Each structure stands twice: as structure tokens, then as C-alpha cells.
Predict the structure.
Amino acid sequence: MNRFLLPFALAFAVAPLSAQQPAGDLLFARFERYLEALRLQAGIPGLSAAIIGPAETAWERSFGLENVERAMAARPDTPFHLDGLTQMFTATLVLRCAEEGRLDLNAPVGRFAEGLPEPDATIAQVLSHTVPTPTGAVYAFRPDRLEWLVPAVQACTGDSFRGSLAGLLERLAMIDAVPGPDAVTLLAPVQGSPATPAVERFTSALSRLATSYLVEGPGRASPVEHPAFTLGASGGLLASVRDLARFDLALKSGVLLTSETLAVSWSPPPGAGPQPLPHGLGWFVQTFNGQKVVWQFGVMPGASSSLVVMVPARGLTLVLLANSDGLALSFPLAAGDVTVSPFARSFLGLVLP
């Protein structure tokens, strides 16, 4: 953990929200103070946040600047680079295909494309970041393997991966989301090239995209060009917290996937050892204070970061998007424990004291 954030996280750990206190405005006001303090300590120039309840967004705030040089404040409709959060959408596309009987999660990825380095890896193994061993599955966080699922999505939907994802964004009215930084440069007849109305929407969103920053110390944030230049199965999606709230509500309401599919997806596969594996089909899964926590993160070192934390039993979801790597780079989130993040722990400590 970042040494500057550790004292704050420890201080918070002994001050959970009392069960006797009102759980609405008081919870959000307290969390807002924690979040702003953490943002400042992490040196994040701009941060957008939302807490989504079972049926609507309960709270949203933005902190700092989406563009420091132009003094433009971050907003809930500011698009950010999602980086690794893109895999939640990839998983959703794959799981929908499986629900409809058009894709077998146990099918090897080599069935859909030639020349893959691990053709016998199954779709489920790729989504869960596992590799088989003689004694059982072993966790190995390899987001790059998700690209092997692109041909499977294409075979299922009959469209390009980008076209399939764009259709999902449109269906959910994710109006600030863009399926890749290069989406507006694609020209027909390139597969997945957007129609004119979509191009106009994407162009508008890209004009408001949060500037990425390399933070090298207090007050030392330098604008950088984000390394992601196109869409993939593990990164490249751009969206605002309001967009992700729509995605989250669609998951909760059963619009995208059935509750049975989510239950399977949010259950880690059996592993080689006695401890449960940390990742399900598209999401990390663990427990905190006896409750299941489902989460995912994204990070591009020196550019951006993101975090989604869900507590299914409470119907609550936290979404955080940042225009520097301060949400994730200093914490070993890929190991599978979201509580190493003081941002996540502050949220979980409030809703699951």
C-alpha cells in the first residue's frame, strides 16, 4: 500500500458507521470526506464517483479536475478510460451468448481461431484467469488472454467485437461511452464502423474525455497521451460513472443476464488448494465481514485507473474513475484482495461495518 495512504486507511478502520446513525445522507457525507482526502493523498487530479443502489443511483460526486491546464472540473458525465473494467463488458457479451445457447463456456478458444498460444484453454478458464494443473485450477491474472475471446464473440453475434459492444452500449443508453479511442476514425466498410449518429455521439464524448496524467509527486501532474489507442477485450472502453451506473442497474435488474448466470459468474471455480480462487467469470469475488464482494479494477500505469466494488446482498455498487493511476497502481489488486485499497475499504467499512 502507498505509504502516504496507510495512516488514513488505518484511522478509518477503527471508525465504521454506527448502526444507530442514519444510513443515508450521513453515510454519503462521511464517504465523500474520506474519498476527497484519499484523492488528495494519492495525487489524483480528477475523480468521478457514484454509489448505485438496487434500483437507482443513490449518490454521485466528482472531485478535482478532468483537465488541469484548462481548469475544467471533473463531472459525473465526464468520460474516462476504463482500462481493465472493459473485461466486465466482455464477460457480459460472452455470458449472454452462453445463456442463449450459442456459446459453450467449456469450449476451447482454439475452436474459434488458429495460432493461439493456448488453444486448449477454455472460455471459462480465460474469463476466470485460471490455468489447469493435474491437481486443479490455479489462478493466474492474465488480462491479455481475454483477447482470445474476441473470435468467440464474433462467432456468436455475427458482428465484430466492437460492433457487439457498441450495440450493448446503445441498448443501455450509455450516451457518454465510446467503444475505443479510435471509434470515430473507422470508415465503412470496416466491420464495426459506427453509423453517423453514433459517430456524432462518440465525437462529443471524446471531446470531453478526461485528460490522463502522470503524477510524480505532490503538485507534479503532467498530461500524457493515454497508451490505449483501440478497443480490445481487456481494455480500451471509455465511459462515465453515469454510464457505469446504467450498466450496473441493468445487471441488477436482469436485463443483461439472469440471476442464475450471475450466481455462477460470481462464484470462483474450484482450485488446486483449499482456499477459494479470487476470480469468477469476469469479476473478482471475495468476502468481507461475512458478505460476498464482487469487484473489478483497471489501471494504465502513468495514465488512468478505475475501480468497481459491488455488495450484492445490499444491492450497492461503488464506481470510481480517475485520470491518473492513483486508484490502483500502488496496491496489489491483481492478487485478488480488494481490501488492500483504502478506497474500497472505506466504502466496505461504511456499508458492512
